[in-house]
Amino acid sequence: MGDRPVTVEARALRRAADILGGKERLRAVLRVPMRRLDEWLDGASAPPMDVFLRAVDIISGPAGGVLPAAAAVRARIRVRQSAERIADTQRAVAETRELKKADLSVLRPSPLMVRFLEAAFGRHERLAMLESALDAAIEAAHADMGNVQLRHADGLHIVAHRGFKEPFLEFFDCVNDTQPARVVVPDVAADSTFAGKEAARVLEAAGVRALQSTPLIASSGTVLGMLSTHYGEPQAPDEAGLLEIDLIARRAAFWLEQPTA
User: Fold this and answer.
1) N or C: which end of the chain has fewer CB within 10 A?
2) Which of 34, 170, 198, 213 is nearest to 17 (CA)?
3) What are the pLDDT digits (tens) for 84-127?
4) What's the CA gap between 221 and 175, in Å, rounded?
């Protein structure tokens, strides 16, 4: 099925095809053209979320269309495949369904946020995922600028940004402070953390008057990075905006934990 890296979606579809007894039976269950199914199986394109979840349903347990012998076949597949890959798929499904069940009635979900939460990213699409998360956070928080930092051995490095240039990018390229909790600064000029320091002058030159930084936290509790939004006027995100940023940060952390090899 080609030499492309196997995505979570392709892996789920291939398992579903094995369980059902072949891709023709999978095509019949999914009710999709064989040409499209071949593309998804090969990883040439990502299937719609409902198709992915249907494949997961086939893998996870009894469902309409699963053959009587599916349980035995599924057991053989699980033995043959690595526990790590199985866990990856199960975790992806659990996270997707958890977010789909989240009560968004108190929110005002923006189009970019909805698009990001419903998207699936391949193992080599980390930068695209982070840029998508940043765009969603900026829109959700009605911010003017933003950046994403990822944790390295020497500190947090900027890997994606919107609205910034030098000297901001150079000054904040490596930050040693890894906060395990969100930081909100409604007014940079009045905040004791920045007042009278070089950082305040760099922020002022960049047009930043307020900011918030939300950690990207792994399932183990490790801080993977920070998702920050910046504002041209003193202000603080409202509760709904912060909740939306939390959902975006949680999903971004989930994708960052997925294996890249």
Assistant:
1) C
2) 34
3) 555 555 555 565 555 555 545 556 678 898 888 888 888 789 99
4) 20
